[in-house]
Design goal:
Blueprint lengths: L4 E4 L4 E5 L2 E5 L5 E4 L1 H9 L6 H12 L3 H17 L3 E4 L1
Antiparallel strand pairs: 1-5, 2-3, 3-4
């Protein structure tokens, strides 16, 4: 995450089925996506670093940056592990 910028994977599709969000690449495998992860995923545009995203979330929520960073790091790790996001320079 050091200075790299997360971007949503091009093949990732987010589906809304009766108010529940699901992610899929090809329709054969799906994952339920909670609203917090979805909100972070929408911020992954390849233009902002992880730190910039967490600073923006902290500013909008009124929370401390360090609290947001600690809470969102595992979410970003999971998004990366599932290949929902890629990291670009």
């Amino acid at each position: 995450m050091d200075g790299k910028k997360p971007i949503k994977s091009k093949n990732l599709k987010i589906l809304d089925y009766k108010g529940t969000l699901y992610a899929t690449f090809n329709g054969s495998s799906i994952w339920k996506v909670d609203k917090i992860a979805f909100g972070l995923l929408k911020m992954c545009d390849g233009k902002k670093t992880f730190d910039q995203i967490t600073e923006e979330v902290a500013r909008k929520s009124g929370l401390k940056v360090e609290e947001v960073r600690n809470a969102t790091k595992p979410i970003f790790d999971e998004l990366t592990n599932r290949k929902f996001i890629e990291w670009v320079d």
